[in-house]
Write a structure and sequence with these properties.
The chain contains six helices and two strands. With 175 residues, the protein is mainly alpha-helical.
Length: 175
């Protein structure tokens, strides 16, 4: 018997997440806010008490270096947006998706996003995975199937995990 395609997507997500957990072990606020270069994009407390990510459109070329805090906010931003469009009624504006303010709360936030994403994918049929019905409202990728977007989520997570891992190494070496 062949395993359902959703099982493959979930196994790939689980592998990417296990790599992320490796980099999350011992993550602290200092590492999250360490800037690897001058003018790095980071997360900053605003007058409203919430942590906002640096952002400018269009993105500069070359893109600025980023902090772990910024990359973790970025994961939360695209995952919140993607989940909201595919399994909810839309997503908040980018500026409304803020960094939780500490490594500990960020880990809890991202774990919750992963758990919600996994739970939303679990019951999907092949027909639902092949559909563009849920993806049509995404600000990117409306022409892709749900399976395409689910695969992209894992690839994007893996890329961001590698960035966080490299930033952790650089931060440790800078001390």
């Amino acid at each position: 018997m062949t395993a359902a395609r959703v099982d493959l997507l979930l196994k790939q997500l689980d592998i990417a997440w296990s790599l992320f957990e490796h980099h999350l072990t011992g993550l602290d606020d200092t590492a999250c806010l360490w800037q690897p270069a001058p003018d790095s994009w980071t997360v900053r407390p605003g007058a409203d008490g919430r942590w906002h990510a640096d952002w400018v459109e269009p993105e500069p070329d070359p893109a600025p270096t980023t902090t772990i805090g910024w990359v973790s906010w970025h994961i939360g931003f695209w995952w919140t947006t993607t989940h909201g469009h595919l399994f909810g009624t839309g997503a908040p504006a980018r500026a409304e998706i803020t960094w939780p303010g500490s490594a500990e709360s960020t880990i809890a936030w991202l774990t919750g996003l992963k758990d919600n994403w996994r739970a939303a994918l679990l019951p999907l049929t092949d027909a639902e995975l092949d559909s563009t019905e849920r993806t049509r409202t995404l600000p990117w990728g409306g022409e892709f199937t749900l399976a395409d977007i689910a695969g992209w989520v894992t690839v994007e997570l893996t890329k961001n995990v590698a960035e966080i891992g490299q930033l952790r190494i650089l931060h440790a070496r800078s001390r």
